[in-house]
Amino acid sequence: MKPGLPVIITRTQPGNARTARAVRAMGFIAIACPVSQVVRSRAVIGADGVDALALTSANALRAVRDVRPLLHLPVFAVGEGTAKAAREAGFASVTSADGDAEALARTIARDLPVGRHVLHLSGEDRAGDLAGMLEVSGLRATTRTVYRTRLARGLTARAREALADGPAIVLIHSARGAERFLALVNAAELTAALARLEFIAISERAAVPLHTRGLNVRIAAQPAEGSLLAALDELAKRRGAP
Asked: Which residues does the UniProt record annotate as the domain Tetrapyrrole biosynthesis uroporphyrinogen III synthase (predicted)?
């Protein structure tokens, strides 16, 4: 157990709650602080002319009004969390790339014949040009924006307390999430607390805004939730937490 060690979780809901449960189970003090709010379009999506779906976030599925017309399509998901959401939604053929957008593009290009049409259901903010990478591999790709995120109104009360009280660990799942966390800290006039924080980012790309500020950042070995949590456990051990 790691009593007294606060971990601030910045990802959006409902992912924030899932990460918090995992962090709490590891013995840390989990502090939810979603830096973004998801606005879903509730779009109607058809499957005409589509051979497969690509998902870079589970939020994309939640944003679709009715997934039943799509359930016969194979799904390629960026990671296991998104793959699990697709299976729970009723998709029978689901492949996880266990990585980032580049890993997803490689997985799709490996499994689909040249010329097939991939529909990428996505948020407004995208990490990497998945459609472009697929087209380079000889596939046809269409990106449909089905949700967007907006800056949260502020830090949660518990996050403000943790920042004011002393050292804490902050988990970062995306570059936009890092930017928004820094913006919320600045708005709360707690910028001086940043020097006391240790950040763990899910990828080098996610860490870029933190590197720009010269902050203390550790990068997960793989761009996946499991690796992020493993890096958290390793950091705690190095800090000497019981």
From this structure: 18-229
Sorting pLDDT into bands at 50, 70 and 90, what band is 14? confident
Query: Do the beta carbons of residue 201 and residue 170 sit within 8 Å?
Result: no
110 and 27 in a common domain: no
Both 161 and 132 in one domain: the answer is no
Same domain, 123 and 139: yes
Say how many domains are in the chain. 2
Model pLDDT for residues 167-212, shown as the tens digit of each residue: 899 999 989 899 999 999 999 999 999 999 999 999 998 999 999 9
Report the amino acid identity of residue 207. Answer: A
C-alpha angle 8/39/129, rounded to 5°? Answer: 85
Answer whether residue 30 is part of any domain. Answer: yes
Place of tokens 């761009």: 223
Can you point out the beta strands (E) in 105-210? 117-123, 140-151, 168-172, 197-201
CA dist 242 and 237 (Å) reads 7
Rounded Cα distance, 107 and 230, in Å: 24
